[in-house]
Amino acid sequence: MTDQFPADNDRRASDAQDSEHPMRGAGARRRFLIGTLLVNIAALTIDVFALDPQHLALALGLRLLVVTPLVLLALALNRRPADRPLQTAAQATAVVAFALSVTAIGQFAPEPFAGRYMMAALFVIFAGTLVSALPWRATRIMTIAAAALYTLIVVSGLRWPPAWSNIDLVGLCLVTCVIALRARQRKDVQIAELQQIRRRDALLKQELRQANAALGRLSTTDPLTGVFNRRYLDELIEQETASLVPSLGQSVLMIDVDHFKLFNDHGGHAAGDSCLQQIVTAVRRNLRSCDVVVRYGGEEFAVVLPGLDEAELRETAERLCHAVSDLQIPHPGLGQGRVVTISVGIAPPVPAETLADAIQRADQSLYRAKRAGRNRVSA
């Protein structure tokens, strides 16, 4: 029977079972075993009506002393994922034992019950193959073993010499097993394809999230200096406006590179870009990780510094001025020996003031610093 199935389908069906989530597989097997146990016990009511007292005792022994202990053993092993091979063997054995017990009981039942027992045994084999949630290889072995033993019982009639009867049931059993295995294989292939689709979908979603995150960073980042751009600052202002929590005020610095247009006119835009990059590096090195640096304009930068009072804010601004002048970047437009400097306007925090208002105050302070001669801090 197994030669009828293509090798690639075997592999895909096996992969579907091997890649099955352990908890979902355990749950399906547990439900199948519980159903098997209930059907096995419920069938005792049929045995009472169908069998004479002597054969009823045989049925009780098979159901209660053989099938039930095997099912309970499989259920107990089902709670131990580490023993999955042993659990698979126990469950397959329980299914085969259930099918054979029904077949054996049917040999001693009068008609029409005998035929119904034979059909019920075939249904057990079919259901065990299709919905037992066993790995594909174990399912094939279980089905072949059950079919072979079923054939032996129905042909021999459990008599010696064998009765050599019920040959029609042998053909029906073979057809049932082939159909069950094909259906099970098709289901496993479909599960494998569905799992592959889900993995691809999850991968595409992850790539899309990463692309959106990268796009979001690009949309709020200044490509030249690597700090945030004006759009990011506008988003901060919008978030603060939408917040229901009263603002405690923000400490803000506005920084302007002194005589930067003159620098570009004499040194060129490439030198101007390099100058801005060096200044931003020096500024960020002298700030905290929580401070936000924004390129506000061409050579103008805003810095939001949460939690600083006026003295700490002024000290930080002075430190930034010294850090930039210490770079000793020659200013080609100011003559020999002159270097690039910055002017800084500060806006200490004011409770209930918005970030937009703090930026406006810092911008006014910056203009005062520039009017006072540049390369200085003004409040």
UniProtKB/TrEMBL annotation:
It comes from the Bacteria. InterPro entries: Diguanylate_Cyclase, GGDEF_dom, MFS_trans_sf, Nucleotide_cyclase, Rev_trsase/Diguanyl_cyclase. One of its GO terms (molecular function) is diguanylate cyclase activity. Residues 248-379 form the GGDEF domain. Its EC number is 2.7.7.65. The keyword Calcium does not apply. Residues 1-24 are annotated as: Disordered. GO terms for cellular component: plasma membrane. Residues 8-23 have a biased composition (Basic and acidic residues). This is diguanylate cyclase. It comes from Rhodopseudomonas palustris (strain ATCC BAA-98 / CGA009). GO terms for biological process: cell adhesion involved in single-species biofilm formation; negative regulation of bacterial-type flagellum-dependent cell motility. It catalyses: 2 GTP = 3',3'-c-di-GMP + 2 diphosphate. The lineage of its organism: Bacteria, Pseudomonadati, Pseudomonadota, Alphaproteobacteria, Hyphomicrobiales. SUPFAM superfamilies: MFS general substrate transporter, Nucleotide cyclase. The keyword Membrane applies. Keywords: Membrane, Transmembrane, Transmembrane helix. It is an enzyme of class 2 (transferase). Gene3D superfamilies: 3.30.70.270. The chain crosses the membrane at residues 32-51, 57-77, 89-109, 115-134, 141-158, 164-181. PANTHER family: DIGUANYLATE CYCLASE DGCM-RELATED, REGULATORY COMPONENTS OF SENSORY TRANSDUCTION SYSTEM.
